[in-house]
Amino acid sequence: MSGKRTYCFLINCSSNSSRAEPFFKKKEPELRMKLPGSDFIYINKDDSIPEIAGQKADGYTHIVACGGDGTVNKVANGIMGSQAVLGVLPLGSGNDFAQNIGLTLDFETDFEILLQNHIADIDVVKSSYGYFLNTFGIGIDGLTNYYASESKFKKGSLRYFSGGLRALYSAKLFTATVNNASDLNEPIKQKVWMVTIANGKTEGGKYTISPESVNNDGQIELVLVKDVSRLRLAAEFIKLSLGLSFKDNVVEILSSSDGFKINLEGELEAHADGERQGLVSGFNQFQLLRKALKVVANYP
Description:
Layout: E1 7-12, H1 15-18, H2 20-34, E2 39-43, H3 49-56, E3 62-67, H4 69-79, E4 85-90, H5 96-100, H6 107-116, E5 119-127, E6 130-132, E7 135-139, H7 140-150, H8 156-170, E8 174-180, E9 188-198, E10 202-203, E11 207-208, E12 220-226, H9 230-241, E13 251-256, E14 259-272, E15 275-296
Parallel strand pairs: 1-2, 1-3, 3-4
Antiparallel strand pairs: 5-6, 5-15, 7-9, 7-14, 8-9, 8-14, 9-12, 10-11, 12-13, 14-15
Helix pairs in contact: 3-4, 7-8, 8-9
């Protein structure tokens, strides 16, 4: 990117069980010295991250999300349609998007990556609930995220593991009818535990739910966890927590270059990039927007 770069850092004080704020304040003097003229905004619980990000996108070339996946999601929603570049300094509990763009989760290293300013154009998915960058999960996926957000564990891996155990106990099968947005063939209708639209490989920091997903390949995936026994589902969850992926006979994965239409029977918990969306139901459409957002990345 030509011209002078200017940076606005948006620090989500609630990220990582409110540990992000004191950590970042220790780093701020160093960042100010290396990037004079930068703006640092500490965002509290009642502040609107998308609104603040959108306002700052007119005055800075780079808007840097300092927090977890939810913070990145909200900043991205705020700057969509602007000329601003998304930067990420991961300070959350999962940081899936950060890992999927090649960040290391070491603050000093990731700050150097930010300064190197290698720009990638990534795909974004548009839904009725806004934009998302990594995953939109429905059913047991949404329940796991919801329970993880309520967990008393501070460590991200324990939060998601405990959330998953609770979700395994309380989740129920539901019927989903899905089809490719541009496909005129008969839709797929089946009972499932989970429907996830994936633009990235992982959730919860290490759970590989869509191994082939890449957020700049012009494709998104639809992950359906089939009607298997609850015991089998628990065994698959344990394997996911160990870094393995679903077995082929447990999951069906579809790909699309356009998007998906999904009709849900019943009301189900959902999340977008780790942010709770509440209960979703009925008809839902997910549209792939190719190369819709500029991001500072560290792809190989």
